[in-house]
Amino acid sequence: AAPAEAPGPRLGMSWRLVLVVVAAGAASGQQCYLTERSARQPGVDLSFCRTIFPEKACCIPAQDDCIQGTYSALLDASETCVARTTPAERALRQLYCLGCDPKQPSYTTTTTDNITTTVTIRICRSLASDMVPQAFDDCGIVVPEERGNDCAGDDVVRPSETYGRGLDGFVAFVNDDNAGKPPGFEDDDGLDVVLVVAD
User: Fold this and answer.
1) In what order do the strands lie in the sheet with 191-197?
2) How would you classify the pairing of strands 154-157 and 141-144?
3) Most buried pick, 40, 75, 127, 175, via CB within 10 A?
4) Average pLDDT over residues 135-158
5) Nearest CA among 11, 12, 22, 6 for reference residue 117
6) Are 159 and 140 in contact (CB under 8 A)?
7) pLDDT band (50, 70, 90) for residue 14
8) Residue ranges with strand state E in 75-179
9) Are 91 and 164 in contact (CB under 8 A)?
10) In terms of Cα–Cα distance, which of 184, 196, 187 is closest to 36?
């Protein structure tokens, strides 16, 4: 086995560097996925996820900024749409801020076999019901070809046409690395992140 490299915060780093650390931390239920440490009061206030998690956070300000940028880019349909906030957009913001949620370790389970590490994220049914794809159809969303690659193209889509409707559509939407999946939880070689609706 190759020697382990020093862990670092997620969003913008190679996933392969931290698989062992994530698996060990998730098993204890204490370690945050993005920062690979326990939740704590950020030394500098968060800007985007702070209103949801004002006391402690599982992310650092640079990750919070990346979450905000990804959220804004997905919903960047028109000035009129950007100016309003719907229940679906509030629910999406809450899901996107999962990486900052101090309770995030309790929503995730990590399993590892010889080849793949799987992180399963349980989403409550009420949040899922607020975020069904058809709730975004009036304005549409902008889905990049590859999240984080500014040189890749993007497509404006009506989510219900792309992902389906209802809870099945929600599951398809939030498991698309370039659409509804929370930033920092994208799949990578040897890492699968799966979002499911909790019973």
Assistant:
1) 108-112, 117-123, 191-197
2) antiparallel
3) 75
4) 87
5) 22
6) yes
7) very low
8) 108-112, 117-123, 141-144, 154-157
9) no
10) 184
* Core vs surface per residue 26-57: b (16+ CB within 10 A) or e: beeeebbbbbbeebeebeeebebbbebbeeeb
Whether residue 10 is predicted with pLDDT greater than 80 in this model: the reply is: no
Answer whether 20's CB lies under 8 Å from 103's CB: no
Name the strand (E) or helix (H) holding 191: strand 191-197
Assign 144 a pLDDT band (cuts: 50, 70, 90): confident
Which residue, chain included where needed, has tokens 């984080």? 148
- β-strands 141-144, 108-112 pairing: unpaired
The tokens of 189 are what? 């070689």
Q: For residue range 169-186, what is the model confidence (pLDDT) as tens digits?
A: 999 999 999 999 999 999
Pairing of β 117-123 and β 108-112: antiparallel
- Its pTM stands at 0.82
Task: Give residue 24's pLDDT.
Answer: 36
| Residue 18 tokens, joined | 């931290």
Written as one letter, the residue type at 11 is L
